[in-house]
Amino acid sequence: MRVECNIDAACTDPHAVLYMRQMSPAVAEAISILEREGADSPPLIAVRDGKTYFLEPEGLELIRTEGREVICYDKLKNRYRLDKPLYELDQLLGEAFVRVSKSSIVNIRQISHVSAGFNGSLELVMKNGMEDYISRSFRKSFKERLGLS
What percentage of the chain's residues is helix, strand, coil (to nearest 5)? Predict the structure, then answer.
């Protein structure tokens, strides 16, 4: 892969643009490193067992609505309640997260595998073993995000 780097002391908003045929694990890891560089996104404030936690988004695997609550799960399947609505989290979380249904957002770096489900949906299994689904209405944007279409 050919790489160009332009150093400009006047640059106030550093960014990278990648042109590729499809996403590869190496490129995904490079993107992850670049996204963390200079990242100033604040931690999410969550509640579990009456205690308030400050969670780094990278450590989360799955965020979804359960009943009237917005719940997130980390790598150890710890369950936290968030006070922000799902649509705000979708905008706040950035490139590492993708909406997969009306009620779920997942960390794309924590997906173990995807398989065909019923009624055209795709079943999603996270690295921590949690399962969810990618609904038909979000399938196209999910595939585009991962460079699969």
Answer: 25, 35, 40
Per the DSSP assignment, residues forming a β-bridge with 113 are 125
Beta carbons within 10 angstroms of residue 58's beta carbon:
18
Q: What is the CATH number of domain 44-146?
A: 2.40.50.1020
Beta strand ranges found along 90-144 (DSSP E): 97-101, 104-107, 111-116, 122-126, 131-134
pLDDT digits (tens, 9 = 90+) for 46-91: 999 999 999 999 899 999 999 999 999 999 999 999 999 999 998 8
**Which H or E element spans position 138?**
helix 136-146
The answer on pLDDT for 107 being more than 70 is: yes
Torsion angle, alpha carbons of 84, 86, 92, 94, to 10 = 150
Domain ranges for the chain: 44-146
Q: Is the pLDDT of residue 40 over 80?
A: no
Distances (CA, A) of 19 to 29, 86, 102: 15, 31, 30
**pTM reported for the whole predicted model:** 0.71
Measured CA to CA, the distance from residue 16 to residue 63 in angstroms comes to 28
The residue count of the chain comes to: 149
